[in-house]
Design goal:
It is a single chain. This protein is of the alpha/beta class and about 120 residues long. The protein has a single domain, classed as PH-domain like. Helix content is about 25%, strand content about 35%. The protein has 2 helices and 8 strands; from the N terminus they run E-E-E-H-E-E-E-E-H-E. A hairpin with a 5-residue loop joins strand 2 and strand 3. The longest helix has 15 residues. The protein starts with a strand and ends with a strand. The relative contact order is 0.23.
Amino acid sequence: MGKFVIRTVNSGIKFDLKATNGQVILTSEVYTTKAACRNGVESIMKNAPVANVEDQTVEGFETVTHPKFEMYQDKAGEFRFRLKARNGEIIGVSEGYTSKANCVNGVESVKKNAAEAEIVEE
């Protein structure tokens, strides 16, 4: 089972969603309060399992409704995704992947782990 790890950083509080193997598969923005950070966790838990995938790496991609994972290629050529809530706000982002297949696996891992992940504080 995955877990959300809430931790304090220099600029506030953030969380990482880690897969069962301990790899970070999603990172949050930085929040000003622990309560806001926990709301972010709850939003991931609610939205990730039902989110569609919008593959922005293909020409003429089909736009899908929120909540959604937007898969894209960054300026360095790496594949990434961001999870957007029903209101269109970005609620989590991935690391860079060298292949599209690994990025797709990352999305699937977030979908699978988010719903039942435990929440821990460091």
